[in-house]
Specification:
By secondary structure, the chain is an all-beta fold. The strands form 2 sheets. Strands 5-4-7-2-9 form a 5-stranded antiparallel β-sheet, with no helix packed on it. The protein has a 4-stranded antiparallel β-sheet with strand order 1-8-3-6, with no helix packed on it. The protein is globular.
C-alpha cells in the first residue's frame, strides 16, 4: 500500500461467539487479514471529525471462504464478532508500534454496543 510503512505484525485469536469492539486509533492505521476458514463479522464506525462519512457505520463478513484484506484508516472505530463455532484468527499489520504505556498509547475505546447490541447479531435469510 502506498505510504503504509509496516511497524508491527500481530496475530490474534477470538473465541467462538466472542465480540471485541469498538476501539480506534487517531495516529495508527491497520491492515487486517482473516483466514478463509474463519468467519468474522467486522464492524466499522467513522468518527473522523473532518470526514465526509462521519457517523457512517458498516458491517460485513471476512473469511467465510474468501481470502481478502481490509485497510482500516486511523480515526475509524472497528471491531469484530466471531460468528463461527471454533476459534478464529486475525493477522493484522500496523503502521505504528503499539505501546502499553497509557501516556503513549493510541488505542481509544468506545462502548461495544454504541450502535446497539443488535449490530453484532448474525442476520439470517
Amino acid at each position: 500500500l502506498p505510504g503504509f510503512q509496516v511497524r508491527q505484525l500481530s496475530y490474534s485469536t477470538m473465541q467462538s461467539r466472542a465480540i471485541k469492539a469498538f476501539h480506534l486509533h487517531y495516529a495508527q492505521s491497520e491492515l487486517w487479514f482473516v483466514p478463509p476458514e474463519c468467519r468474522l463479522l467486522v464492524g466499522l464506525l467513522d468518527v473522523r471529525k473532518d470526514s465526509a462519512t462521519l457517523g457512517t457505520s458498516m458491517r460485513f463478513v471476512m473469511g467465510d471462504g474468501l481470502a481478502r484484506y481490509l485497510v482500516i484508516p486511523n480515526g475509524v472505530a472497528h471491531g469484530a464478532a466471531n460468528l463461527g463455532d471454533s476459534v478464529a484468527q486475525i493477522i493484522y499489520v500496523l503502521n505504528r508500534q503499539f505501546s502499553a504505556d497509557p501516556a503513549a498509547s493510541d488505542e481509544k475505546r468506545l462502548p461495544w454496543d454504541i450502535l446497539g447490541a443488535s449490530f453484532w447479531e448474525m442476520e439470517r435469510g
